Structure formats: C-alpha cells, structure tokens
Amino acid sequence: MIAQLLNASKVYDSPTGKMTVLDDCTLSINEGELLLIIGPSGSGKTTLLSLLGCLINPTEGILEIDGKTTNTLSAVEMAAIRLKTIGFVFQQFNLLAPLLPKGILRFP
Fold it and tell me: Which CATH class is domain 3-99?
C-alpha cells in the first residue's frame, strides 16, 4: 500500500466558525492502481490531494504514506516524503509558468 487515509477529516477555523472541508475519509491507494478523484466544486478534492501530497495534515484521523504515519512529522520530514515518494501530474502545464523566472521555460 502506497498511501492510506483512516477516518481523516480536515477542519479550518473561519470568521463564522469551524468549516469542515473533508469529513471522515477512509481511502487506500495501492501500487499500480489508477485512481480518479472527481466531484463538484467544494467537495474536498483539493483538500484530499493536499493531504495525500503531504502538504497538510489531517485535523483528525491518520495519514500513512509508504508505511509511515505522517501526522507527527516535522516540515522537513514532510518535505523529504514529497521529494522521494509523492508526485503530482497537473492537467495543464501552464500552472508551473508563474513559478519560474522568465526565459527558463518556453512553450510553442
């Protein structure tokens, strides 16, 4: 198993109170498996990907990546997992252009 979420939730504090953006999610991802995450706007897709990408920790529940529980890892340890284990393929390459200095990346 590459990644596993166990009863994971993500809650943010907002001016109007607590906002739950992902609620009690359990998911297992195995090597070689194709996974599609689809749903309407606001359904928690980006939050789920941010959890799986080790960009954020769940408010509740457990996230395991490659057999390692990530909930208590430091920012440096999370960065190491992102470097060695996690990767994203974006639908549009132009998402990267604003992050690079001019002249480094050219597209026809």
Answer: alpha beta
